[in-house]
């Protein structure tokens, strides 16, 4: 599957469920029609759809989003049935087959499951099927949930090397400031993913979803790791996907402007951070200038409790992020061997797992 032929389209809860009043049949039909048009033009599409929890709330007659995980999971289980059934019925009218794909962060954390998810999605696309992806809300907990489907969509874009990520929202685009607070705020039409001004974008999720403009900026930056361009635009605008396909640039376009990470580095970048290592200037030079692995001698501080094989963040002595990588040692072990030469590790611990704390192949340099 050529990267240029794959788009990931994400639609938010407020759009799908008419701000929690129930599934928006007319709007869903319009998106489906546009996606069928994209398919006809040679574009393969993965649809990431929010709305299961909101639809479950509507079916249960709940006016406020539940706060407990158990209640959210119950609402998701109820709502997911109606959501997928509705999409399938809409696509059936065009003779297009669909497949439901539910993911958790754990599915992308383990390398074998990550590759299996990639293979499944790639094969579904090759068969002309539209995968409809959602977070598996019925089993996730606060510790492993993606947090919002914007992030999930971006990770899926990385997973299958998509060319385009489209985040359909109830806003026309990304603004310099929150337009609800400052009506004179200007919309950003085009910007680079690395532009620091994006850090100042405000906005939190509505009561029906978990996202917001902050999560969309985060998602765009995640997608940029694989060279994927992101469009943030109104899902209510007629034929919005066709407009993007025709070359128009509605809403805000966030461009990938840094070298594309390799497949393994993209996977590393998607993992949750389990702890932090502070490293000295010598280790920083060895990592950045010499392309070396991280050794225990360069570690000055260990924070957090983490196991062998988990992802840790490496900071310099000023707190600036240098890299992330998979540690060969636990936090308890590193507390004992930090600052020591590799040949002293076995003496201190009574065994040697590896001479490197983080091997170069398991390390991603940031920036």
How would you describe this protein?
The chain is an alpha/beta fold and 367 residues long. It has 2 domains: 3-265, 3-Layer(aba) Sandwich (Carbamate kinase); 273-365, Archaeosine Trna-guanine Transglycosylase, Chain: A, domain 4 (Roll). 36% of the residues lie in helices and 19% in strands. It contains 13 helices and 15 strands. The chain has helices spanning 13-16, 25-40, 52-60, 69-92, 105-109, 111-126, 149-159, 213-224, 240-245, 263-270, 281-288, 331-337, 345-349; strands at residues 6-11, 44-49, 98-103, 130-135, 164-169, 174-175, 187-188, 190-192, 229-234, 252-255, 275-279, 299-303, 311-315, 321-326, 363-365. The strands form 3 sheets. The chain has an 8-stranded mixed sheet, sandwiched between helices. A 5-stranded mixed sheet has the order 12-11-13-14-15, sandwiched between helices. Strands 6-7 form a two-stranded antiparallel sheet. A hairpin with a 5-residue loop joins strand 13 (311-315) and strand 14. Helix 2 (25-40) packs across helix 4 (69-92), helix 3 crosses helix 4 and helix 7 packs parallel to helix 8 (213-224). The model is unreliable at 207-211 (pLDDT under 50).
């Amino acid at each position: 599957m050529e990267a240029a032929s794959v788009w990931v389209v994400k639609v938010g809860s407020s759009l799908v469920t008419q701000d929690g009043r129930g599934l928006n049949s007319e709007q869903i039909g319009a998106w489906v029609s546009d996606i069928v048009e994209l398919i006809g033009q040679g574009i393969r599409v993965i649809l990431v759809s929010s709305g299961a929890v909101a639809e479950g709330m509507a079916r249960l007659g709940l006016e406020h989003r539940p706060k407990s995980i158990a209640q959210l999971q119950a609402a998701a289980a109820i709502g997911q049935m109606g959501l997928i059934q509705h999409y399938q019925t809409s696509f059936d009218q065009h003779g297009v087959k669909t497949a439901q794909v539910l993911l958790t962060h754990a599915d992308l954390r383990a390398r074998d499951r990550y590759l299996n998810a990639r293979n499944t999605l790639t094969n579904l696309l090759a068969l002309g099927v539209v995968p409809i992806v959602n977070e598996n809300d019925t089993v996730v907990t606060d510790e492993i949930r993606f947090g919002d489907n914007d992030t999930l969509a971006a990770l899926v874009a990385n997973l299958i090397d998509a060319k385009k990520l489209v985040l359909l929202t109830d806003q026309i685009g990304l603004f310099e400031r929150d337009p609800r607070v400052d009506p004179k705020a200007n919309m950003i039409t085009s910007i680079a993913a690395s532009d620091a001004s994006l850090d100042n974008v405000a906005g939190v999720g509505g009561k029906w979803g978990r996202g917001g403009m902050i999560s969309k900026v985060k998602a765009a930056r995640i997608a940029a790791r694989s060279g994927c361009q992101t469009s943030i635009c109104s899902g209510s605008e007629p034929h919005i996907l066709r407009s993007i396909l025709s070359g128009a640039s509605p809403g805000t376009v966030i461009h990938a402007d840094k070298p594309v990470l390799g497949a393994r580095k993209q996977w590393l970048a998607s993992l949750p951070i389990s702890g932090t290592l502070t490293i000295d200037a010598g280790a920083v030079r060895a990592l950045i200038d010499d392309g070396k692995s991280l050794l225990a001698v360069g570690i000055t501080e260990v924070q957090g409790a983490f196991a062998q094989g988990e992802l840790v963040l490496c900071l310099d002595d000023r707190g600036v992020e240098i890299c992330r990588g998979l540690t060969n040692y636990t936090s308890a072990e590193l507390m004992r061997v930090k600052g020591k030469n590799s040949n002293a590790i076995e003496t201190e611990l009574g065994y040697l797992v590896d001479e490197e704390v983080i091997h170069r192949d398991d390390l991603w340099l940031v920036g």
